[in-house]
Amino acid sequence: MVSALPVSLEDFRAAARRIAGRVIGTPMVQSASLGELADVPVHLKLEHHQTTGSFKLRGATNAVLSLSPAERSRGVVAASTGNHGRALAYAAKAEGAVATICMSRLVPENKVSEIRRLGAHVRIVGVSQDEAQQEVDRLVREEGLVMVPPFDHPDVVAGQGTLGLEIIDTVPEAAIVLVPLSGGGLAAGVAAAVKGISPNTKVIGLTMEKGAAMKASLDAGRPVQVEEVPSLADSLGGGIGLGNRVTFAMCRDLLDDVILLTEAEIAVGMRHAYACERQVVEGAGAVGIAALLAGKIRGGGPIVAILSGANVDMEQHRRVISATLPLYGEERP
Questions:
Q1: E strands of 95-155, at which residues?
Q2: Which residues contact 152 (CB under 8 A, 6 or more apart)?
Q3: N or C: which end of the chain has fewer CB within 10 A?
Q4: How does pLDDT run across 132-153, given as a tens digit for each residue?
Q5: Which H helix or E strand runs over 120?
């Protein structure tokens, strides 16, 4: 099954060699509190400790390093909900290239300002990832920039899949891996890498209840557009692209399940991460913990939950932790 995928196990291993020294291998810790709740060992992959605060650095670095010097000299461009933009800005700067990041007005200011700090050009366009992507397409067409997509590209998926290699190397007996799901770059890469080594391990995608483009697309059997709405898990917003070439099919074929979480459940996950695990994570990074706390994960263990990002506005985080943040129509837990 894995050999027929657009990204192979050898691609993941090659990406791991390529990005070594530029991306850190993040820690894995066991959670006593979640293990007691789930009645099986629960491990947390602390990917939010990554250099740019999220897993996105893996895919962006692999993609930039896979470009020719001539391509890098033209400059790179991408649409982003924040974390990919930060990662691409960092990876491009490290290789002497200029990055342009296109984002919608829904992207939190803390993520926008950090991308600017890294020296990237920033374009704020519209109120959706699809509108930001239209500006990317224009810059590629009219100015010759090289697009490095946030998820739907084999080199990006290969980079994200190195996280799956680390998971199985550290917890080879993992029965379930919980992975945040947005455009599918992380979920596709992790699922293919994990199942390429451990075929019986289940990989479950987790996303927010409102505006979940990949879940809607999987249900429809084809890529579809959804309305983007504010969410604590803002990094999981955005469409998957109607012309999706890589991640839709991989998620369709590899994910064992997709679970939706309410805003209240995501908030509880963030609070637990801070109070019990001593980890500051953004909403998207807390969905694995949230699903366990909500009792939405069934099956044996051990379980690995990926904490994917820490790039949360700290004022928002403080309000969530103190349970004073309005939860977009949800009742406060």
A1: 99-103, 121-124, 146-147
A2: 183, 184, 185, 240, 241, 244, 245, 246, 247
A3: N
A4: 999 999 999 999 999 999 999 9
A5: none
Taking CA atoms, 309 is separated from 87, 176, 306, in Å, by 12, 20, 9
Return the exposure string of 69-98: e unless at least 16 CB atoms fall within 10 Å of the residue's CB, then b: eebbebbbbbbbbbbbbbbbbbbbeeeebb
Burial code (b: 16+ CB inside 10 Å, e: under 16) for 107-139 equals bbeebbebbeebebbbbebbebbbbbbebbeeb
Q: What is the pTM of this model?
A: 0.92
Query: What element of type H or E holds 246?
Result: none
Positions of the chain with pLDDT lower than 70, given as ranges: 1-3, 324-333
The DSSP code sequence of 14-50 is HHHHHHBTTB----EEE-HHHHHHHTS-EEEE-GGGS
Exposure b/e, 16-45, CB count within 10 A at least 16 = b = bebbeebbeebebeebeebbeebebbbbbb
Query: Measuring CA to CA, which residue among 128, 177, 172 is closest to residue 304?
Result: 177
